[in-house]
Amino acid sequence: MFQALADPTRRLMVERLCDGPASVSELAAPLQMTLSAVVQHLAVLEESGLVRSQKQGRVRTCQVDTQALRSAERWISERRTLWEKRFDRLGAYLAENPEEPKEGPQT
Amino acid sequence: MFQALADPTRRLMVERLCDGPASVSELAAPLQMTLSAVVQHLAVLEESGLVRSQKQGRVRTCQVDTQALRSAERWISERRTLWEKRFDRLGAYLAENPEEPKEGPQT
DNA sequence: GCAATACTTAAGCGTATGCTTCACCAACCA
DNA sequence: TGGTTGGTGAAGCATACGCTTAAGTATTGC
User: Fold this and answer.
1) Domain spanning A2-66: CATH 1.10.510.10
2) Which residues in chain A are contacts of B67 at CB distance < 8 A?
3) How far is B101 from chain A (nearest CA, A)?
4) 3-state SS assignment for residue B61
5) What confidence tens digit (pLDDT) does each residue in A19-64 have?
6) A107–B11: do the CB atoms touch at under 8 Å?
7) CB contact under 8 A, A73 and B83
8) Domains of chain A, residue spans
9) Among A80, A96, B55, B99, which is 20 to 30 Å from A9 by CA?
10) What is the rounded CA–CA span in Å between residue A61 and residue A63?
11) Which CATH number fits domain B2-65: 3.30.450.20, 3.40.50.1980, 3.40.50.150, 1.10.10.10?
């Protein structure tokens, strides 16, 4: 998932797909690389669940799947708020115990 | 950023740091690899802005920086809602134009 | 001062990643 | 029917990544 979003080309592809579905060659058009490379990126995106696609005739149409995006968002959000809560507690602790916290407020 | 979160070990380290600051060796303790490897992961996390650290005496203490997490979260969230809005519009369109959308509602 | 601790840095190594080329197949269409 | 379009799959290659070992530096405690 994060692996899939790690590559800038793939992020571009996701951004493009957020503007609407696209065929493989439409996706490839703005990118400075072969169709083959784009297809390989697409495979990674599909494996990660970020993108789905179906073939109709000879053209494959791709679109994003927000489920995966949602879960990545949740992962980050949970970690972030966890830390921010901790940070608040630390603030409160420091306000009450003004000096020499030789043993920190671990846990 | 996403690059940094792409590695499972680094995600573990971030999770650990969300429970509170830790020294390099505390961070390394639960991981089945050398201190050296952990330090290298740490460097990636610091470059990405996900983690900050400072050295006091001979021990380096690390903590997460929510700024970076926040911006990753925003990126995902923006893309996701963008797509979901589009999806809603498409639903409305289909409800009003029941047949043969030979030219899709692109844009 | 001396040893232990807590990193730090550099070199090396195997595997994964991102890309290309080339050959190929399946629609479409003039 | 034959050429063009749109995509697929395999092979190969250069570079990046994750890790190890090994040698070194800067604190800390006795």
Assistant:
1) no
2) none
3) 14
4) strand
5) 999 999 999 999 999 999 999 999 999 999 999 999 999 999 999 9
6) no
7) no
8) 2-66
9) A80
10) 7
11) 1.10.10.10
